[in-house]
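can u do me a favor
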């Protein structure tokens, strides 16, 4: 599975084969991939190796807004020309989703239930998306002595 995360908090999860199919169809219908930016850090805070600007590795790389819009437009052309088949509904969801920059992540990954870890993962995700807000995580008293604020 592949999870796509955008800058307004939306997530779309699709199968890896469908993601590859959509990339190929969009390229066949006019999309000229610009390449991705590797994520600055993994969700666990470790550095990622350079991924060669690939769209396939699903390691948190960023697809720029202009590239995402061109991908969505070309995917729309493929859908209109009848190339979606049984996956038309999911492809249309992807087309609507890809209207802005997004991250390509591994799907089906379970997040940690530890509030401090979740706050750190959210801060890393928000930073990778270029957001400059504050995430405030209220940690139950039995798990921590006070509320924790993470800035990014």
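np, heres the sequence
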């Amino acid at each position: 599975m592949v999870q796509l995360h955008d800058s307004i908090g939306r997530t779309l999860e699709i199968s890896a084969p469908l993601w590859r199919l959509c990339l190929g169809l969009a390229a066949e219908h006019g999309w000229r991939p610009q390449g991705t930016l590797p994520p600055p850090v993994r969700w666990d805070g470790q550095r990622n190796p350079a991924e060669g600007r690939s769209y396939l590795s699903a390691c948190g790389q960023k697809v720029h807004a202009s590239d995402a819009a061109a991908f969505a437009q070309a995917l729309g052309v493929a859908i209109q020309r009848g190339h979606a088949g049984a996956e038309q509904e999911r492809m249309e969801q992807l087309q609507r989703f890809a209207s802005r920059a997004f991250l390509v992540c591994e799907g089906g990954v379970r997040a940690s239930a530890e509030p401090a870890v979740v706050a750190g993962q959210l801060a890393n995700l928000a930073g990778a998306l270029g957001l400059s807000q504050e995430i405030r995580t209220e940690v139950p008293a039995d798990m921590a002595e006070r509320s924790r604020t993470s800035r990014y």
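The CA atoms of residues 6 and 102 lie 4 Å apart. hope that helps!!
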